[in-house]
Amino acid sequence: MSSTSPIVGIDLGTTNSLIGAMDAGFPILLADAEDERLTPSVVHFPSTGEPLVGRAAARMRALDPANTVYSAKRLIGRRGGEATDDVSYALVGERGAAVRVQVRGREYAPEEISALVLKKLRADAGRALGGEVTRAVITVPAYFNDAQRQATKRAGELAGFTVERIVNEPTAAALAYGLDKLGDRSKVAVFDLGGGTFDISILELNQGVFQVLSTNGDTRLGGDDIDAALIADFRLRISDLVPEADARLREALVAAKHRLSFEDETRIELPFFTGAESLVRTLTRAELERVARPIVERTRAHCLRALHDAKLSPADLDEVILVGGQTRMPLVRDFVRAIFQREPNVSQNPDEAVALGATIQAGILSGAVQNVVLLDVTPLSLGIETFGGLMNVIIPRNSTIPIKAGEMFTNAVAGQRAMLIKVVQGERELVRDNWPLGEFELEFEPAPKGHARVGVQFEIDASGILHVLARDTKTGAQKVVEMTSAVDVSDEAVEKMLEESLEHAFEDMSDRVFVEAKLKSDELLPAVRQALAQAGPELDTDELALIAQRVAEVEAALAAGAGQPLKRANTALDEATQRLATLLIERALRVS
Ligand code: AMP
Predict the structure, then answer these.
(1) How far apart are alpha carbons 33 and 544 in whole angstroms?
(2) Same domain as 227, residue 217
(3) What's the confidence (pLDDT) of residue 84?
(4) Residues forming beta bridges with residue 460, ordered by sequence position
């Protein structure tokens, strides 16, 4: 594997995938043996022999739907028990466990299916470039969490690639649109509606560097949903459809949907559709739009949230670019125009922008393209659990990556021999409301309470993958853990997390105040009792009565679970015991 081998750029899409390479300083997309650049992300498992991948597999989708796997990208990071898409092949997975595809009695992880697609792309690229291709840049939706990025990287490795970088799709698209040529501080929205995922990202160009100001989206929203709604609508209007006709109908309706991006009406013809009878119908753009409108409408809230997170209004944007095949639909363009109050830039082929950008990124990595650096952001905060089950954020949401950040922690209990590092992702104040990413133990030398020093460092590499390091600063003993899919969370859940964090912001804050105040009370009460036992007799009765009253107030607030009153009661007890504390110090000085 020589380091001079070319690096290819790959758009591993839900519906279609593409591969490109730099040629004489230009990014070009590579064609397969049939001279096609778009490879359907579909794998068919025949009863004997090797799996078919790409167009050959897509053709089998209608004929043998149970053994033809499509949209595997939607399954990456999904768990059993979550709402499932209506797919024509079998899915298995215990509640909470990663979803697997079941075909011909064998189970496959979604990334194994993606790996087969990548393997075909790799072979095609090798043929086109005249040599083995071993290094790749692969794109993922900006919203993919750590586990999903890892799974994508794994897919690349299974296909025989060294994955040089995982790049966010909108960032790649911005490069393909040549947005690095815009003026400094230009702000851009990347609206990406593909087959299965929707992403909206707001980028800012900063001295030749792209920075993602915010990202939002839904990995379960795309052209596939429009197809499904169109099929359902059509079935309602045709009474004598047999279920086996579904796949053929789907193919015909998707093709009609594509034509309706350029025509006002189109004919759907299915010879011998119900056995003897053929189906001939006219579908108008208006009819398609009526069905598609509620689905396209779902993009609006994400766009508004992304603008809000970036602290921008539509007027602040300099450019809005379209990515993903579904943005060819005039209705989608109308929505984009209305939301962002400007004409979208359609100068690039929306199907190819991400792959071209991935290729440019590959060119940057191999040194073929210079003077552009790409920065992405973390979609959710990352942290560890501290005392009382509180979330301690180490890398806040929307931080620019790559990033490294750390904090020092200590032991809660004297003589403790190990510290459990529980890594969590999310926006809530209490760890139990966030998602666990993984945990490990670091052993350290026993020390009195509060004396151990354990440094915890989070590093997110350029691919968005998290490495957690914990080190006992005294002995130098350390552990580094790459966070793999301890818990795979769907991107729908990411969105839910953001909504919940806003919704519960107030109660979360009071939960945090209470937990922190309780930690303080737990230290204060025993300390006051001990001090009273030693120096109490030196206080007068009024002082003793006041301290007893303040202690009772702290206990009452503790029992009531009330954060702010407990905080106030702690402060009052602290003040009431000032003289007691001074007496103790004086005693200690006298003794020594
Ligand atoms: P992508 O994930 O970018 O490959 O986008 C694929 C989606 O775009 C699928 O849902 C396609 O049906 C849809 N699509 C492709 N071409 C068109 C078109 N001309 N008009 C409307 N939708 C299209």
Answers:
(1) 91
(2) no
(3) 58
(4) 403, 466
Q: How far is the CA of 194 from the centre of ligand 1 (A)?
A: 6
Q: Cα 232 to chain center, whole Å?
A: 30
Is 192 annotated in the active site?
A: yes
The CA distance from 202 to 214, in Å, is 5
Q: What is the pLDDT of residue 100?
A: 94
> What pLDDT shows up at residue 371?
54
Q: Which residue blocks in 2-84 are alpha helix, DSSP H?
A: 55-63
**Cβ neighbours of residue 139 closer than 8 Å, sequence gap 6 or more:** 9, 10, 11, 12, 166, 167, 168, 169, 172, 354, 355, 357, 358
Please give the pLDDT value at position 242.
62
Residues 167 and 245 in one domain: no
Domain boundary among 376, 408, 442: 376
Does some domain include residue 500?
A: no
Per the domain annotation, does 496 fall within a domain?
no
Collapsed DSSP state (helix, strand, coil) of residue 294: helix
Mutate to test the pocket of ligand 1, among 70, 257, 285, 291 (most ligand atoms within 8 A of CB): 257
Q: Flag residues of the chain having pLDDT under 50.
A: 1-3, 485-489
Active site residue 11: yes
Q: Which domain holds residue 440?
A: 382-489
The verdict on whether 264 is a catalytic residue reads no
How far is it, in rounded angstroms, from Cα 507 to Cα 335? 36
Residue whose CA is at the smallest distance from ligand 1 atom 6: 195
Catalytic residue among 111, 164, 192, 429: 192
Q: Is the peptide bond prior to 565 cis by the omega test (within 30 degrees of 0)?
A: no
DSSP-based three-state secondary structure for 517: helix
Q: What's the pLDDT at 335?
A: 97
- Is residue 213 domain-shared with residue 179, that is, in the same domain? yes
Choose the final residue of a domain: 489, 523, 555.
Answer: 489
Same domain, residue pair 75 and 217: yes
CA-CA distance, 346 to 38, in Å (whole number)? 19
Cβ-Cβ contacts under 8 Å for 198 (sequence gap 6 or more): 192, 217, 218, 219, 221, 222, 298, 299, 302, 324
Q: What is the pLDDT of residue 489?
A: 45
Q: Checking phi first, is residue 586 left (phi over 0); if not, alpha (psi -120 to 50) or beta?
A: alpha
Say if residue 372 is in the same domain as residue 455.
no
Distances 235 to 62, 228, 239, 246 between C-alpha atoms, Å: 17, 11, 7, 9
Q: Is residue 354 part of a domain?
A: yes
Q: What angle do CA 237, 242, 247 make, to 5 degrees?
A: 90
Are residues 166 and 36 both part of a single domain? yes
Tell me the chain's radius of gyration from C-alpha atoms: 29
Pair 231, 253 in one domain = yes
Q: What is the pLDDT of residue 2?
A: 40
**8 A C-beta contact, residue 287 and residue 128:** no
